[in-house]
């Protein structure tokens, strides 16, 4: 079997630190340069000063193990602050939330969603449901598929509506006596639209099932857009029927990878995320995540990010990113042949060909990559995906300019190919 990445064998003799670091730099040379602002995925940057702070916090806790907060009580404090502050952003302090929101840090959004699925499985067991089902729109994150596979739940995917949002009526039609969990997204990753959470919550209440709101993208974005007067759709624990939520600090919280928060409306729900056993010779063992040993560096870096930015910093970064996203959307909509998918209200969007027969959007992506841009690709329908963050905001104007040129070039080639293939009437 070939090895696409090559292989560096374990050396017979250890190498000096400088040599090792030089080799890392060489290996890293072909990676995408996210500092240039031309990467609209994967990395969320709040600038070099902020990144340097993250590096220092990561290094300060490089050796500690977050599994045991009795040995390292400072890690327990950092985790508590992050969970409590995230919960406050998502409505936990409002009387409508019930005042009992609890949660835990995870390694990322995928684990938060997997844990929410596991919690639902455990609740289903308490209710005597042999094989529970989860109802989610096709736009809900792939981690729900992973969670259903891990914990033996049936995942029922329901097509989104013409606006690319979850369709509450269609989802309700998929609910039966085995259903334990509904899923809503705020926003959904594929198109950046926000599902109608209040309507989904009403469905959940009618059928006495759980509702998880995946705010991994929006947890550190939508609350600040709301404070800026740019978003007003209810989506968090202030909505009766929302039983759990997830929010990623390493996205619009501008923290280092990987830290996310899984939150539950009540202690009774939250306790299902905790794994405890004494059935081995090693004594009491407890963990709130799939992993046992937990890197403390990302936790410290996330705490440092939130303390450094504060509410005013997040408002500033959110405004910068949102202004840039609006400019990108206007630019895309001003290019003949392109269309934005749905009506994304925040900073995540997808766009594609208005007529796929005349424009290959993936060829557009190839041409943009040749000019140094990185955008994700997705299907259903074929689209390019852009996550606009503070670090990419300044480059949006250049992206729109290049996009206009590339669409013209690719469209011309497609027209020429069609002419060559089918001939002409003259």
Across the major sheet, the strand order is: 1-7-6-5-4-2-3
Strand count: 13
Q: How many distinct folded domains?
A: 2
Distance between the termini: 53 Å
Major sheet attributes: 7 strands, mixed
The ordered H/E elements are: HHHEHEHEHEHEHEEHEEHEEHEEH
Provide mean pLDDT, rounded: 93
Total helix count? 12
**Helix- and strand-based class?**
alpha/beta
How big a fraction of the residues is strand? 5-15%
What is the element layout, followed by pairings?
Blueprint: H1 17-28, H2 48-60, H3 73-89, E1 102-106, H4 109-126, E2 133-137, H5 143-151, E3 154-158, H6 168-173, E4 179-185, H7 197-207, E5 210-214, H8 222-227, E6 244-248, E7 260-264, H9 267-270, E8 275-277, E9 285-287, H10 297-333, E10 338-340, E11 348-353, H11 361-370, E12 376-378, E13 383-387, H12 396-422
Parallel strand pairs: 2-3, 2-4, 4-5, 5-6
Antiparallel strand pairs: 1-7, 6-7, 8-9, 10-11, 11-13, 12-13
Helix pairs in contact: 2-10, 3-10, 4-5, 10-12, 11-12
Describe the structure.
With 426 residues, the protein is α/β, with parallel strands linked by helices. It has 2 domains: 60-305, Aspartate Aminotransferase, domain 2, CATH 3.40.640.10; 311-410, Aspartate Aminotransferase, domain 1. It has helices at residues 17-28, 48-60, 73-89, 109-126, 143-151, 168-173, 197-207, 222-227, 267-270, 297-333, 361-370, 396-422; strands at 102-106, 133-137, 154-158, 179-185, 210-214, 244-248, 260-264, 275-277, 285-287, 338-340, 348-353, 376-378, 383-387. The radius of gyration is 23 Å and the shape is globular.
């Amino acid at each position: 079997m070939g090895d696409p990445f090559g292989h560096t064998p374990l050396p017979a003799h250890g190498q000096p630190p400088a040599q090792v670091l030089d080799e890392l730099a060489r290996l890293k040379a072909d990676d995408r340069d996210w500092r240039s602002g031309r990467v609209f995925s994967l990395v969320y940057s709040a600038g070099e000063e902020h990144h340097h702070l993250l590096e220092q916090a990561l290094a300060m806790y490089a050796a500690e193990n977050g599994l045991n907060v009795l040995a390292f009580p400072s890690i327990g404090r950092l985790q508590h602050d992050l969970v409590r502050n995230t919960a406050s952003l998502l409505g936990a302090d409002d009387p409508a939330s019930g005042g009992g929101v609890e949660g835990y840090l995870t390694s990322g959004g995928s684990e938060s969603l997997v844990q929410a699925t596991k919690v639902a499985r455990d609740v289903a067991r308490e209710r005597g449901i042999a094989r529970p089902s989860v109802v989610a729109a096709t736009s809900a994150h792939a981690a729900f598929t992973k969670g259903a596979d891990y914990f033996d739940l049936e995942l029922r995917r329901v097509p989104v509506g013409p606006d690319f949002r979850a369709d509450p009526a269609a989802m309700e039609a998929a609910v039966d006596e085995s259903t334990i969990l509904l899923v809503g997204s705020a926003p959904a990753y594929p198109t950046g639209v926000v599902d109608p959470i209040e309507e989904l919550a009403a469905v959940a209440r009618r059928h006495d099932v759980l509702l998880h709101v995946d705010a991994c993208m929006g947890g550190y974005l939508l609350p600040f857009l709301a404070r800026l007067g740019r978003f007003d759709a209810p989506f968090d624990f202030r909505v009766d029927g929302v039983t759990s939520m997830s929010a990623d600090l390493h996205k619009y919280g501008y923290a280092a990878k990987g830290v996310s928060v899984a939150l539950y409306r009540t202690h009774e729900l939250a306790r299902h995320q905790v794994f405890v056993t004494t059935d081995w010779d090693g004594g009491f063992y407890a963990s709130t995540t799939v992993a046992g040993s937990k890197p403390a560096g990302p936790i410290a870096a996330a705490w440092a990010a939130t303390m450094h930015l504060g509410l005013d910093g997040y408002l500033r970064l959110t405004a910068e990113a949102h202004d840039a996203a609006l400019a990108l959307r206007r630019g895309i909509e001003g290019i003949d042949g392109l269309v934005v998918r749905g009506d994304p209200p925040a900073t995540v969007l997808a766009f594609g060909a208005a007529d796929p027969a005349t424009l290959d959007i993936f060829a557009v992506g190839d041409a943009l990559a040749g000019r140094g841009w990185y955008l994700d690709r997705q299907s259903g329908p074929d689209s390019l995906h852009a996550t606009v963050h503070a670090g990419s905001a300044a480059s949006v104007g250049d992206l729109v300019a290049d996009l206009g040129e590339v669409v013209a070039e690719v469209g011309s080639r497609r027209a020429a190919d069609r002419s060559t293939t089918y001939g002409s009437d003259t």
